[in-house]
From TrEMBL:
Phylogenetic lineage: Eukaryota, Sar, Stramenopiles, Ochrophyta, Bacillariophyta
Cofactor(s) in the UniProt record: Mg(2+); thiamine diphosphate
Domain of life, per lineage: Eukaryota
Keyword tags: Isoprene biosynthesis, Magnesium, Metal-binding, Thiamine biosynthesis, Thiamine pyrophosphate, Transferase
Matching Pfam families: DXP_synthase_N (PF13292), Transket_pyr (PF02779)
This protein's name: Transketolase-like pyrimidine-binding domain-containing protein
MF GO annotations: 1-deoxy-D-xylulose-5-phosphate synthase activity; metal ion binding
Alphabetized PANTHER family for the sequence: 1-D-DEOXYXYLULOSE 5-PHOSPHATE SYNTHASE-RELATED, 1-DEOXY-D-XYLULOSE-5-PHOSPHATE SYNTHASE, CHLOROPLASTIC
Ranges of residues in domain Transketolase-like pyrimidine-binding: 265-430
């Protein structure tokens, strides 16, 4: 049985954890049919204390476990949340820290700070090419000076010798000194005991710190801040951390990945280039992404229109309402989010966009089944959870030509919010258009009629759906009916 509960946020970092917890012989089947998951999964191992895939959930889960152990008088083992500087930009992480500090929940948060908030890092946006996080800027400026840390420890020991009223004065002086030198004490103001920054690769120094935190009788939460380098110790990964974030099979010596050749461009790149065409014609077109510029094509758009590209970090709720505010003032925001991640901004779609009938363009990449990322990332629910919302116009292309035209349709349509969803992968090599045109939204196309056709429509929501990845399969099977 595990002695401590370790909750890995997102859980991209869980591969070593899986190797160390009895799954080394199963790693060859990682992310494959019948193999083990690429993320933590409770039913896979008792050492996977909490499942993950989406970000910013670990601190809430760890706090819930900590409170439950206390109420049920369970063994006082540690609840440890391991979270990156990208995931901690998510609002849910701050909600959890605020509550944990308020309740003085006994728990440890390990902040893995490697300077990579968005994928890829370095996308040209309206905020520059730095990570889309003021927290990253804050933690980068935190004091690393060992002499100051030693002085602070010395001062605390001396402080205990003074009467209580003098201790209060010294405590305020210590806070003032830290505020002057390190630019503030954000985590301590949230009620955490802050330790760091610590070199996350210096095991001789790190292990004793972890042991002290494990054995501490502290009655309030602790945040251990580690500075790390992504891919540390493997040169190909250090030099191309974005490309090595999620990999296919690759050559261990060179890091070169083996990928199948495609005769057609990806739908993501087709969307991005179509949006560039629309933005060239219309200066009010802007793009928004929630820390996934590479996955949504906003990195391509950003190279052409950096001042009109906005990476808000892992903040889907904010992204949707940010787009709604833009639409109020006459901009044409294309809010580009994976289908599975828009689930996190659902209330904003309902309350801030659809209820006010604002012309926000919601672009859902990775609609449908996404492959080896598994159930946490499949975009299977958007038609159900969006189809019931008033005022939305929902579109899905049959091929590349449809996709290009639907982008132009979204750009031209100002009478309400639109949704454009398309799957991961490439198109079918459809011929290039000489000239783009928009669709009449009330009219759909019926490529073939079967024995029975049911037409579904409501007065609240309009559909033009072809379901790109399935259309050609359906048509090829049509003669078999």
């Amino acid at each position: 049985m595990p002695e401590d509960d370790i909750i890995w946020d997102v859980s991209h970092q869980c591969y070593p954890h899986k190797i160390l917890t009895g799954r080394r012989d199963k790693m060859s089947g990682l992310r494959q049919l019948g193999g083990i998951s690429g993320f933590c999964k409770r039913k896979e191992s008792e050492y996977d204390s909490f499942g993950a895939g989406h970000s910013s959930t670990s601190i809430s889960a760890a706090q819930g476990m900590s409170v439950a152990k206390s109420l049920l008088n369970k063994r006082k083992n540690n609840c440890i949340a391991v979270i990156g500087d990208g995931a901690i930009t998510g609002g849910m992480a701050y909600e959890a820290m605020n509550n944990a500090g308020y309740l003085r929940s006994r728990m440890i948060v390990v902040l893995n700070d490697n300077g990579q908030v968005s994928l890829p890092t370095g996308t040209q946006t309206a905020g520059g090419v730095v990570p889309a996080s003021q927290l990253s800027a804050y933690t980068s400026n935190l004091l690393v000076s060992k002499p100051f840390q030693d002085f602070r420890d010395f001062a605390k020991n001396v402080n205990r010798l003074f009467p209580e009223n003098v201790q209060d004065i010294n405590k305020r002086l210590d806070e003032y000194a830290r505020g002057m030198v390190s630019g503030g004490t954000l985590f301590e103001e949230l009620g955490f005991y802050y330790v760091g920054p610590v070199d996350g690769h210096d095991l001789e120094n790190l292990v004793p710190i972890l042991e002290k935190l494990r054995d501490s009788d502290s009655t309030k939460p602790v945040l251990l801040h580690l500075k790390t380098t992504k891919g540390y110790g493997y040169p190909p990964a250090e030099q191309a951390s974005d490309k090595m974030h999620g990999v296919a099979k690759f050559d261990l010596a060179t890091g070169v990945q083996v990928k199948g050749k495609s005769i057609a461009p990806s739908l993501t790149s087709i969307f991005a280039n179509s949006l560039i065409d629309a933005a060239t014609e219309d200066r009010s077109v802007v793009g928004i992404t929630a820390a996934m510029p590479g996955g949504t094509g906003m990195d391509i758009f950003g190279r052409r229109f950096p001042k009109r590209t906005y990476d808000v970090g892992i903040a889907e709720q904010h992204a949707v309402t940010f787009a709604a505010g833009m639409a109020c003032e006459g901009l044409k925001p294309f809010c580009c989010i994976y289908s599975t991640f828009l689930q996190r901004g659902y209330d904003q779609v309902v309350h801030d966009v659809a209820t006010q009938n604002l012309p926000v363009r919601l672009i859902l990449d990775r609609a449908g089944v996404v492959g080896n990322d598994g159930p946490t990332h499949h975009g299977c629910y958007d038609l159900a959870y969006l189809g019931c919302i008033p005022n939305l116009t929902i579109m899905a292309p049959a091929d590349e030509i449809d996709l290009k035209n639907m982008v132009m349709t979204c750009a031209a349509f100002d009478d309400g919010p639109t949704v454009l969803r398309y799957p991961r992968g490439t198109g079918y090599g459809a011929e290039k258009l000489q000239k783009l045109f928009g669709f009449k939204l009330e009219n759909g196309e019926i490529p073939a009629k079967g024995k029975e056709v049911k037409n579904y429509c409501t007065s609240h929501c309009r559909f033009r759906l072809s379901l790109c990845s399935a259309t050609n399969i359906f048509l090829s099977a049509f003669p078999l009916q």
